[in-house]
Fold:
Amino acid sequence: MTTRSAKILRLTDNGIGYMNDDVSHSITAFSFEQIKGYKGETAKELGLFNGTEVIVEYDDDQHVNAVSIPNK
Structure:
């Protein structure tokens, strides 16, 4: 498992986010359900906006396992 920071690029109304990984510079999608502690909140309620930095846990195949919001 690998953990890296990423910045939010885009958030959709149906709970999908796109982020840019600071190391690989690749754009990756995630579901809000992958956010640790997620309970159905909107992006605004979670404090997620374009440019927000998040911590991403990747599995060995570099797929997103979980997303954490710092200071949350």
Q: What stands out?
A: The chain has a mean pLDDT of 94. The chain has one helix and five strands.
